[in-house]
Amino acid sequence: MTLPKFIITVDGHLRLGWVHMHRDLLQPGDKCVGGGYFFVDSVGMCLELDRSSYDFGRPRWHLLTRLVVPHEYRGMRIVYRYDDGEHDDVAVSEVLPVEYI
């Protein structure tokens, strides 16, 4: 079964897709620093990221200096939700500079 998953690479690329495993989103030479699942809230104009990747764990946002996002998501707020009761949500698009490709 495929699910809406994402990964982030050490150079800041956000890769999203409907895949079986998070590692299916890797491209040659990528070094992954976490992943999870995504949901597009088109009404609220928000790309919601949450949970963690079985393959790579939770995103390690502190390792990034920028986020490179597919142009289809331009204008959307990007939020990572921990949903664990311990951590606050991260408004990623307000914390990191975002570039669109």
Count of distinct strands:
7
Head-to-tail CA distance between termini: 28 Å
Strand content: 35-45%
Within the largest sheet, what's the order of strands?
2-1-3-4-6
Sequence stretches where pLDDT stays below 50 over 5 or more residues: none
Structural class: mainly beta
Give the helix tally: 1
Approximate helicity band: under 10%
Anisotropy-based shape: globular
What does this structure look like?
With 101 residues, the chain is mainly beta. It is 4% helix and 39% strand. The protein has one helix at residues 92-95, and strands spanning 3-9, 14-19, 32-41, 46-50, 67-69, 77-81, 98-100. The protein has a five-stranded mixed sheet. A hairpin with a 4-residue loop joins strand 3 (32-41) and strand 4 (46-50). It is globular. The N and C termini lie far apart (28 Å). The mean pLDDT is 95.
